[in-house]
Design goal:
This protein is mainly beta and 812 residues long. It has ten helices and 45 strands. The strands form eight sheets. The chain has a 22-stranded antiparallel barrel. The radius of gyration is 29 Å and the shape is globular. It starts with a helix and ends with a strand. The chain is 8% helix and 53% strand. The relative contact order is 0.11.
């Protein structure tokens, strides 16, 4: 039987097409808008190098599929009417590979960013109920560090004790500075117990910074009683190698040199770089340097499986002049830090719906504080020598003033040295499954092996701690009709120090009016409830009543007075808010309210209180002087307002305001205990002063009631400029100079209320694109030269300026 020629040609063509498809790279996924609804008719282009190798259009539910007969490193471009052109990150696809690439389109006027801290899965900000702010690398690169950009967020306070390289802490919504879980490339970066110094964190090679305001122990583990901060190292994406260099210099002998090499080649993407910053600062004995190395290497075993290695190493040192305004002279001391954050991860997309991640991370942190020699005027009494600073007058923002000489150093065997080591190994496993476009579930397990050491040569102190901690997480998220979005999860923490704790998290967001074109299209209502749990820091564990009794040979008192080891610090938060888009998404206004209860916080309790409250014999109490206890509780509530506007094609503006009402409810500090002897200054009779911690009924230290920020940016084809400001009101604080005057008295204590000054810090930068590969820029910081931008006693840097160049060289 003969076969007609037409049928024969058709059969041969079908066989050839089938064979070709069997050896093709298949890229498929779903195109959605910012609320997760499918976008039909979107045009997709698959690029290999500079060539379009496949094109197509999304289906009724946003689904698409593209094929290429060649393997390699691809880029996907997606566009649709009313949305901005959206490029993907470059990705690898080999022949026979099936690659899953989902696309989220954004409206032309406003970029909708992706958050991970909110739910553990990449989610657009529009679909989350959490309060999340992001910082982009375009805002970071003119800065040396990240702290000044963190000031430009609602609910976030940055407190820097000193100048460049000085101790820099973050307070979020009234929480403790140790209550922020900070991760770099998913690896916990803070010390044991949560302490993190932003003064040593360079902006070099950082991509997006994400700040989740509010407790979030569910998705990031122990430590996030106030916030979770996620930092990500930049990743090589370009097809050709790119060499970047930034160099600048300014006043106070300040200079920076940094460079990196990045790109991608088939299965590999890479970034390697180094940065060095130096400054003399404005105070004697305050020289600073920071050397940071960064690496991000990714390798795709195939389209479903990839390996990634990240590393960030910092070697920093800064002179420590101490609270210069309290002494009139600089101390002769130095602090050095060596910080290594590194990890390796395996990412496996088993199916289009099932994803797995395994990561092993290491944190190595060492800190040394050197006191080379005593400074000041020596006075010997009863065989003990104390060194006093120069005569000074200290004036608080509340108008109170004191004069005298403060104790600065003591008669110890110099030079002295104290060391703190905080090491951590973490194993993290995550599996998540998307049952449908409207429901996803995540499960995670984390194990952390923590080892800490504290030793002091002057006192012969040596303390060591080991903690093995486990965490188990279950989280689900989804939506109804792309209008109501929810997340529900919980974590069980098994900590070596405080035992078993559980924390839940619930979030709901509802769009009564969906985003779109129009005057007020896009109304979002949201609500969150969450709890946080945190372990004590290394020094808090060593100075706890339990540890001190044990180490001083008074272990019998532990059972007699029912003393227990340090407990978990806890937080509980409710928040709600409204977000309103305006003028076809060109502007957005956000309003929110939060109420957080912080319980079992840690404070120092003196020997007198241990005697009066716990009945501990005076001989034992005075032998340990005092101890840290979980006896502090306070409430923080407030309002946040934020607005962003794309004014014109060239102008963008944003700003915000925070009102914080924080109040200490319970304390056993000797200054605060009911019926106890509160500390007073004889020059201010009748005014009780919290010398080391706030009094009951007052505000926690260094949390201003009023704060705000603004940023105005202008961009053109070659020029760009920005003016940014942080506006901070007065806050409560202490001079911490109890029994420190030249007569061993309290005459250098000032009343706590409104002790720290308000300030308005204004920064500006201007950049000019001289050539395609070169731009020149200048950065102007603290334009009004306000030096009271930190706690009382610590003068900040006055006006500083820098100018430099930025090069970008591409090998074609």
């Amino acid at each position: 039987m003969s076969i007609p020629a037409g049928r024969l040609r058709a059969a041969i063509l079908a066989i050839l097409l089938s064979a070709s498809a069997a050896h093709a790279v298949v890229v498929r996924g779903r195109v959605t808008n910012q609320l997760g609804a499918g976008v039909s008719g979107a045009r997709l282009q698959l690029l290999l190098g500079n060539s379009v190798v496949a094109a197509g259009v999304s289906g009724p539910e946003g689904e698409y599929e593209l094929r290429s007969s060649e393997g390699g490193r691809f880029l996907l471009l997606t566009s649709s009417q009313g949305f901005a052109m959206t490029p993907s990150r470059s990705f690898y696809g080999g022949r026979l590979d099936l690659v899953q690439q989902d696309v989220t389109l954004r409206l032309d006027e406003r970029k909708d960013e992706i958050t991970v801290t909110a739910t553990g899965l990449p989610t657009t900000l529009s679909q989350t109920s959490s309060s999340v702010s992001l910082i982009q690398p375009d805002s970071l690169w003119p800065r040396y560090g990240v702290s000044e950009e963190l000031r430009l967020m609602p609910g976030v306070q940055i407190v820097q004790s000193g100048q460049m390289g000085g101790q820099t802490s973050q307070f979020v919504r009234g929480g403790q500075s140790d209550g922020n879980r900070v991760t770099i490339d998913g690896i916990p970066a803070e010390d044991m117990g949560g302490r993190f110094d932003y003064g040593n964190l360079a902006s070099f090679a950082l991509d997006t910074i994400e700040v989740h305001r509010g407790p979030n122990s569910v998705t990031v583990g122990s430590g996030a009683t106030a916030s979770a901060v996620r930092l990500v190292t930049q990743q090589g994406t370009t097809i050709h190698p790119v060499l970047r260099y930034t160099g600048d210099a300014g006043n106070f002998h300040t200079w920076r040199n940094e460079g990196d090499l990045s790109g991608s080649a088939r299965k590999l993407d890479y970034l390697l770089g180094f940065s060095r910053v130096d400054s003399s600062n404005a105070l004697p004995g305050n020289r600073y340097h920071n050397a940071t190395s960064a690496a991000n290497l990714g390798f795709a075993l195939n389209a479903k499986t990839s390996l990634r290695f990240t590393l960030r190493n910092t070697d920093a040192a800064v002179g420590v002049p101490n609270a210069h305004d309290f002494y009139g002279i600089s101390d002769n001391a130095k602090q050095a830090d060596q910080i290594l954050i590194s990890g390796a991860s395996l990412d496996y997309q088993a199916t289009s719906a099932w994803h797995n991640l395994v990561r092993y991370g290491v944190t190595r942190k060492r800190e040394q504080l050197f006191q080379f020699s005593p400074v000041g005027t020596p006075i010997t009494s009863f065989g003990f020598t104390t060194y006093y600073g120069r005569p000074v007058t200290i004036t608080g923002a509340n108008g109170y003033s004191v004069s005298g000489q403060a104790a600065m150093d003591f008669g110890l065997p110099y030079p002295t040295r104290s060391d703190q080591v905080s090491n951590r190994d973490q194993l993290y496993y995550q599996t998540d499954y998307r049952f449908s476009p409207h429901l996803a579930v995540l499960g995670a397990f984390r194990y952390e092996d923590e080892r800490g050491i504290y030793k002091n040569s002057a006192y012969g102190t040596f303390n060591k701690a080991d903690r093995g901690n486990y965490g188990y997480t279950l989280q689900m998220q989804g939506d109804f009709a792309s209008r109501v979005f929810y997340s529900l999860g919980g974590e069980i923490e098994k900590n070596a120090l405080f035992g078993l704790e559980g924390v839940p998290k619930l979030g709901i967001a509802w769009y009564p009016i969906a985003p779109g074109n129009g005057f007020a299209h896009g109304t979002k209502l949201r609500f969150n409830f969450s709890k946080g749990v945190q372990e004590p820091t290394l020094t808090e564990q060593f100075s706890s009543l339990y540890s001190l009794l044990l180490s001083s040979g008074n272990s019998a008192a532990i059972n007699t007075y029912h003393v227990t080891p340090m407990n978990a610090l806890r937080s509980r938060s409710y928040e709600g808010g409204l977000e309103q888009s305006l003028l076809s998404q060109r502007g957005i206004v956000k309003l929110g309210y939060f109420h957080t209860q912080f319980d079992r916080q840690i404070e120092y309790v003196d020997a007198g209180t241990l005697i009066n409250i716990f009945g501990i014999p005076s001989g034992i109490a005075y032998s340990i002087f005092g101890a840290d206890l979980n006896s502090l509780a306070y409430r923080a509530q407030g309002l946040e307002a934020e607005s962003e506007w794309r004014l014109t094609k060239h102008w963008f503006a944003r700003g915000g305001y925070t009102y914080l009402d924080a109040n200490v409810q319970r304390s056993l500090s000797g200054d605060a205990v009911s019926g106890g002897l509160a500390t007073t200054n004889p020059n201010f009779p009748g005014i009780a002063i919290g010398s080391t911690s706030p009094l009951v009924g007052q505000r926690p230290f260094r949390r201003p009631t009023h704060s705000g920020f603004f940023a105005v940016q202008w961009t053109a084809s070659k020029w760009s400029a920005a003016l940014k400001g942080a506006l901070v009101g007065r806050s409560d604080d202490s001079t911490f100079l109890s029994y420190s005057d030249i007569n061993s008295g309290n005459t250098l204590l000032l009343p706590n209320k409104n002790l720290d000054y308000a300030y308005q810090r204004l920064d500006a930068n201007i950049a000019y694109q001289w050539k395609p590969s070169m731009s020149i820029f200048t950065q102007l910081d603290n334009l009004t030269s306000q030096q009271r931008t930190g706690p009382i006693g610590y003068p900040g840097l006055p006006f500083t300026f820098r100018a430099g160049i930025k090069l970008r060289l591409v090998r074609e």
